[in-house]
Write a structure and sequence with these properties.
The complex is a heterodimer of chains A (about 110) and B (about 110). Chain A is about 0% helix and about 55% strand. With about 110 residues, chain A is mainly beta. In chain A, strands 2, 4, 5, 9, 10 and 11 form a six-stranded mixed sheet that branches. In chain A, strands 1-3-8-7-6 form a five-stranded antiparallel sheet, with no helix packed on it. In chain A, strand 4 and strand 5 form a beta hairpin. Classes of the chains: A mainly beta (about 110), B mainly beta (about 110). At the A-B interface, strand 4, strand 5 and strand 10 of A face strand 4, strand 5 and strand 10 of B.
Chain lengths: ~110, ~110
Amino acid sequence: GENVEQHPSTLSVQEGDSAVIKCTYSDSASNYFPWYKQELGKRPQLIIDIRSNVGEKKDQRIAVTLNKTAKHFSLHITETQPEDSAVYFCAASPRVDSSYKLIFGSGTRLLVRP
Amino acid sequence: EPEVTQTPSHQVTQMGQEVILRCVPISNHLYFYWYRQILGQKVEFLVSFYNNEISEKSEIFDDQFSVERPDGSNFTLKIRSTKLEDSAMYFCASSARQNTEAFFGQGTRLTVV
């Protein structure tokens, strides 16, 4: 089955710097890759997603890139702010019949230092 | 903005007891899921549900687990005989179509003592 690896597990950056989180997946049939932000004690919330027919997507300070050949995708946050501090999870969706489950990476704890 | 709601927010139960976790997905969504997250760990897939039946389940979702959509709005997860290792945050999620955003509920923290 699908396996998603995520690095780094923790990331500390200075406010205003960029942060990059990387994920790899194993199932070449996966075709949907969302990123979720989870603040302490709260629900995961989607911040950006990308489908396999697209190589890059950007939304203000957040961008995601996808390399289907290498089976990896990355989250880029520019001009980081303290409120970006949270745990970020990447995920991949390997379609099985009518199940569009998400397989999550292990998470990256991002700390933005003011 | 519509959201997925879960009740209760926190449930404490004795080992061996049955628990039912309840979820109300977003009303026009078709795909429903349960995930769990052990404290400090990643979110793990339990089961997906579509067209009134389970479409996929993980190895975690053994015979002690069941799901039901008893009416047009609720989606429940039942654990028949809870074990200590079932202690986790359980998230319900729903999505409108395939490969679109899965909206998560706020979670039910299950503590088995």
